[in-house]
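Recap from last week: sequence in, structure out.
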Amino acid sequence: MYYAYKYRLKPSDAHREELDRHRDICRQLYNHTLYRLNEYQDEHGELPSMTTLRSELPDLKKWWDGLSNVYSKVLQTVVERLFDNLKSLSTLKKNGYGVGQLKWKPPREFRSFTYSQSGFKLDKKGGQTVLSLSKLADIPIRLHRAIPDAAKLKQVTVKKEPTGKWFATFGVQMDREPPEPPENPEKCVGIDVGILNYAHDTDGTVVGALDLSDERERLEREQRKLSRKQHGSNNYEKHDARCGVSCRPSAERRDFLHSSRLLRSGVRPRGGRRLT
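Predicted structure tokens:
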């Protein structure tokens, strides 16, 4: 079975600069690959294969300064990312949705890059755990939960959130069989997701819906302030980051879902909040 483990990175200022540089090179490569895809289609009347465009990477390194400083598997996953997006658009079109064409990615919309199969490892240096990334740096990482020893690390995606924080998400594969059906179905509890309430079960436990009206109003107010600032300016970037830090409905939802699971297991939710 395949699992995802997400951890917070703690990069220094020098690490942040290198992370942003690698991320921007990957973004430029994505845009260049999209240009080559459209150019190939115009010349041959059909889309190129992923292998065709990926085979151009060695020639690109000869004239593209900085491309050789990025790990080769990372560059390959950028090409794969383009074709994954193209496949998603094709699927939507087949299902009857009106779709357009893939567009070039501006810096704000390209926030992650992926090491696949190799080029990364968890290590101990200077008394702390670090994520060692090939051709990048050894970045301190906060392992708030351990990865099982039997797990196989398949890939790691490094992502910069709109708040400016960096996270690492490990793709982990473990040999686990699906759970067996219960022998005594009478002892099982049925859980149903409701409309007025978040969920209720056959034991009578009710989990109320999460009220995010205050957070939503705060976010709308901060976004109105952001819209009055000049796009791309320092004040715009600072306020944009502040919107992500101070207005966190998505984080509230994740915390609420986590607390709801703890409620069913008999553990007190984080922060002592009562959800019923």
